[in-house]
């Protein structure tokens, strides 16, 4: 499917994308989803794409073909907002050209884009552009965008990313987010493209393609999982205490109470044996963690 | 939307469900999604539901209404597989009754179920039942099912759950999975219903409704996030080294290489200033973690 993420922090921008494309599980291939427009000292723009590959490639073709003199391009637009509008117009041009034929084949006009970067003398900006060609921008409360298969990778970003996050930590966060997604969705795959843009540098200084042999990504892949399991083991297990009352339904009660006891009306309903008292978590302090191999004690919650 | 999870481990079964229901963001309410059929000493069956509330409630009504003598019920079916088939038939009956009218209102026949439990003298079993009334069963390779908003909560289960996981650890895993989901999707909400079934007990011994005041769930909610951030800080940040070559495109190259340099054909293309050497991650050992507040050193990856 694709997974791409763009982040805007005080120190710079992070862009990360996968490269798997597919037309069904028996037709899997590789295609870059990151395109970088660099005019060193003047501007850097990075575009990430997700969705129908033919639609996103057609949009890139519109954006990179030579234009008539006087028509704006990503090299000449005076601001990042104008750049976002230009990408939106390119999508609309592809829509005008192709959507009718796609509809007749039952193919949805599915595409989305992340555009970020900086022009000389201006601030860094980051946008998400929709298939309809309009767009939204990040803010300090929401300093990132994801496109494609976004759900698996979202929790870690929400937990750690703020505008004050150092740039390399933000890159680490993006890679962990990508790792969770790779594990859970086969349509997202290596290699990855990672571009870390340093604020006011106005050139590409940090870029890598990460495949299975990349030591840093392999370290994240194995270490994050190990550490999660370790943290998991250190969190106390639930402790159960005898309950005064475990809610049971009797006939006539609200039918959506959870426990439906057997009654003679349901057929043979002789209760067997001594019932053990039911237990509940309701008013319980978490227990101390196990003293086995799991790690240092955590203070009671 | 709903989030429910069912797990089958050697020691027993874990069932966890939320209670939020909505018909749009301005119409939010609470409804249990867990129903328990208990004949102590004979059988325990637990049903979790997700999807269109009227459809799932209609299915439960079919399953809990008195039947003609000789017709099977969840109290009398001779096996868990027969129980799963019975739930499937109940869904199909609701479909026969309601789907035409729903379709005329443009409402999808959206529902899914998790059914698990044990009959005396038999093994524990766990199934996921579809809107079409057919179903699948867990295996040792895949010992759990999720229905509803499943993606946010899936990674932690995949990382820690196996059939050998102790029962209380499995419950903890389910709660952490639910916590991630609650944070990321407003249509999933407290309180939660948690039922932990001990293998061969043939009765409900451990059940709790967890709301904001439950200390254990609050401990998980705050501790898991803190520990994740701590682990995140302990993982080394990426280190960048000078690259022999950062791929750049020149005209005529594959148009989907990531870096598109400016050329005179694109308008003024005078390169400004001394380019800093580009850096890449390609062959780099991760650095030692920062010596600040983050925690013990991790050995280089």
Automatic annotation (TrEMBL), chains A, B:
Q: Does the keyword Transferase apply?
A: no
Biological process (GO) annotations held by this record are: proteolysis
Q: Keyword check for Protease, yes or no.
A: yes
Q: Which GO terms describe its cellular component?
A: proteasome complex
Q: Which InterPro entries match?
A: Ntn_hydrolases_N, UCP009120_prtse
Would you say which domain of life the source belongs to?
Bacteria
What keywords would UniProt list here?
A: Hydrolase, Protease, Proteasome
- Please give the Gene Ontology molecular function terms for this protein: peptidase activity
- Renumbered to this chain, region (Disordered) spans 244-301
What name is this protein filed under?
Putative proteasome-type protease
